[in-house]
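Try this one yourself first.
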């Protein structure tokens, strides 16, 4: 049975909460390395702090997906996990930027920050995944591309707001500097306001969206009674995953490997390359931290604009490959730029890759899956996002020491070289795209 067409506003409401969740994710992406550097972390160990979040994602997401496939209650099927993730996220967002304000030792503050980062990333992903699953659950094949495009638009709009918050708060007069080891108030208030918007957006989607009941879902997805009784074996599903799962996963590996380095090293890289400093207590370094948010906002704008171009390509694979190639050029070009405004060009190009990463992998994957285990497969697919970040985190310090500059007053210089490493990874991803099979799995 064909799922009914949804109106534009029904699809909008289905993904609106993503706007708030993405504000939180953007704040994390743009400010975590700045926060840990302020707390006293050495630059060549910064990437290690990014190991725990994707590691938790690899564990939690498949479990959440499998459990939500079997969850039917008065609150819905996917929505209960959305609520839990959002509640934990807002609590952690209030605590994380204050890690340096509790009179802890440097090691204790870093340990507390690492724990909060782990919980924040886990909760954000727990709140984010239900939106992707609900589109797969409730939108028919003809409208799925449009629905994911709306979700991508809301995602990038949320990113734009989250990235700009510290810069805006500094502009209106909130302090951008703080005592050594303390996170500036402009960053702290960004997290507070982001948490408030997150819960409001999630509550809006919760109130406006009514998920299918078990009988409707079974009829629309061709699920038989015996299918409902089957237990979900994640290992079995992984072993019998469609070819597209693994082929897209290879592309994902190189993509997320690259973006982990952007999130980790942008502030330190441009602080040295543009502002000429690696002193984390300096006003120049904190200005670079604010400018990181601006650059990430430019990336979001580039992503929004390029998302309008992608549907014009006749071949999804060609669109995917060209998008990643443009992103690679953006990363590599940043290495040679010493003007803060010229970096806009680099990050607009990086936004092209991000637009493709947000939409095309999920559209290709969900079209190759049945409705029976969609949540489980979406959770497992999150491993193709988490694993490359773990690998990149573990080898990031080695790359930086090998290809970066010398230490200056005990601080590792040359962090901008990691953008070249990221560019090479995206070039490999661009080539790997042509190995994806577009045939629908039986």
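Now uncover the answer:
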């Amino acid at each position: 049975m064909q799922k009914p067409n949804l109106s534009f506003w029904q699809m909008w409401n289905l993904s609106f909460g993503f706007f708030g969740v993405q504000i939180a994710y953007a704040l994390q992406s743009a400010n975590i390395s700045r926060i840990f550097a302020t707390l006293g972390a050495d630059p060549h160990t910064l990437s290690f702090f990014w190991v725990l979040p994707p590691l938790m994602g690899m564990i939690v997401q498949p479990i959440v997906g499998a459990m939500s496939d079997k969850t039917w209650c008065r609150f819905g099927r996917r929505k209960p996990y959305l609520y839990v993730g959002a509640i934990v996220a807002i609590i952690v967002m209030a605590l994380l930027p204050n890690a340096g304000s509790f009179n802890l030792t440097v090691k204790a503050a870093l340990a507390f920050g690492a724990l909060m980062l782990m919980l924040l990333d886990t909760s954000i992903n727990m709140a984010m995944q239900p939106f992707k699953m609900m589109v797969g659950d409730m939108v028919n094949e003809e409208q799925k591309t449009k629905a994911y495009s709306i979700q991508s638009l809301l995602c990038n709009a949320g990113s734009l707001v989250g990235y700009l918050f510290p810069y805006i708060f500094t502009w209106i007069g909130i302090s951008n500097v703080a005592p050594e080891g303390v996170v500036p108030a402009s960053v702290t208030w960004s997290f507070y306001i982001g948490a408030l918007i997150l819960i409001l957006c999630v509550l809006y989607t919760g109130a406006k969206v009514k998920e299918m009941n078990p009988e409707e879902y079974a009829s629309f997805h061709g699920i038989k009674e015996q299918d409902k009784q089957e237990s979900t074996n994640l290992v079995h599903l992984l072993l019998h995953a469609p070819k597209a799962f693994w082929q897209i996963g290879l592309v994902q590996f190189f993509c997320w490997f690259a973006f982990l380095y952007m999130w980790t090293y942008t502030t330190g890289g441009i602080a040295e390359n543009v502002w000429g400093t690696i002193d984390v207590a300096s006003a120049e370094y904190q200005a670079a931290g604010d400018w990181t948010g601006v650059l990430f906002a430019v990336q979001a704008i580039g992503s929004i604009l390029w998302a309008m171009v992608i549907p014009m390509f006749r071949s999804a694979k060609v669109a995917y490959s060209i998008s990643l190639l443009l992103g690679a050029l953006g990363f590599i070009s940043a290495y040679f730029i010493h003007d803060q405004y010229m970096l806009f060009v680099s990050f607009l190009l990086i936004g092209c890759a991000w637009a493709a990463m947000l939409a095309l992998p999920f559209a290709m994957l969900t079209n190759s899956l049945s409705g029976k285990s969609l949540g489980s497969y979406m959770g497992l697919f999150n491993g193709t996002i988490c694993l490359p970040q773990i690998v990149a985190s573990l080898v990031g310090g080695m790359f930086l020491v090998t290809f970066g500059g010398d230490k200056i007053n005990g601080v590792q210089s040359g962090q901008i070289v990691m953008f070249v490493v990221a560019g090479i990874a995206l070039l490999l991803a661009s080539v790997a795209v042509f190995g994806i099979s577009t045939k629908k799995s039986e």
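Discussion: The first helix runs from residue 8 to 15. The chain is about 70% helix and 0% strand.
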